[in-house]
Structures are given as C-alpha cells and as structure tokens.
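Course assignment 3, question 2. Fill in each field.
Student: A.L.
Task: Predict the tertiary structure for the chain below.
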Amino acid sequence: MIGGERVPAAEGRTFAVIEPGSGKPFAEVAEAGAEDVERAMRAAHRAFEEGRWPRLSATERGRILLQAATLVRQRLEDIAVIEARNKEVNHSSKVAWELSPFILGHVLTHLNRE
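Answer field:
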C-alpha cells in the first residue's frame, strides 16, 4: 500500500508467500523495488506534512490508536491463523498468545482513560 491505496509494484513483479508446512503458496504479493520505496517515502512524508496527524492533540491521537487496537483485537483470530500458516505453527492460539502484549497495551490504554 502506498498513499492508502493498494498499488502494484512499479516494475510489476510479485512473489508468492509460501506456507512452510505444505510448501504451497497461500498469497501473492507485490515485490517492492527502489522506485516503490521512494514512492512510499514521498507519500508518507506528504501525509505527515499535509495530513491532520501532527495537528491532533495527544488525546485525539490516543483515541485513534485505541480504535486501531480495537480493530486488531476484533480480527485477532484471523491474524493469528494467517501468522500461524506463515510461521508453520500448528495452532493459531500460540500466535494469538504472541500478539497478547499488543492486546494488553490496548486494555491498559483504555483503563488509563477511565
């Protein structure tokens, strides 16, 4: 993703993400090159300079980060299944456990607001 949009690699190359357990591909992703890195850096710089993030208060930034953490928590099982496939882990609950510090941070952030 560059500038909030899914874009192909500038050179059009892709590569397969291989599931270690089966040796079979389970995703095809863009293979970024130097031009893609430059485009991403320019987009990130532009988004920061022209976007609203640097002008938000700490409270507003915290609210947005809490929303992001909530979305990750809601999709935790999906994320864990994909990561389990990527890491050749037999059980997605192990991956969910690895992600638990992120969720703990989410809870602590929420509790500190109350």
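Instructor remarks: The mean pLDDT is 80. The helical segments are 34-50, 58-74, 76-87, 92-113.
Grade: pending
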